[in-house]
Structure prediction request, 101 residues.
Amino acid sequence: MSDWTPEAGTPPVSTPDEPVPLGVVRTPTGHGAVDARLERLADADHLPADGHVEVYEDVHRGLRSELTSLDARPAAVPGPVPTPSHRPHDTHHDTHHDNRS
Prediction:
C-alpha cells in the first residue's frame, strides 16, 4: 500500500466508466453569446473522451458564427434621404451674371 496522494491542482484520475471534470476555469468575457458558448464546454466534463469532439465542434461553430457576425455590416436604417449641399452643374453654362453695384 502506498501513502502517496496527489498534489493540489493535480487533475483527478478517472476510470473509463466514470468521467471526471477537468476543472478548467472559464473566465467570462462579458459578451453573453461568447460566454454561453464557453460554458457549453462544461458539457464535455461529463462525457467520455469520444464524446468531447461533438461538444468542441459545436462550440467552435458557435464561436465562428459570433466572430462572423462582428464582421457583418449593420443594416441600413430607414430614414430621410440626404439632400446634396449644392446643386449639380447643368450642362448649359450660364455666362450671364447679375453684377449689381
Observations:
- The mean pLDDT is 77.
- The longest helix spans residues 52-71.
- The CA atoms of residues 50 and 96 lie 86 Å apart.
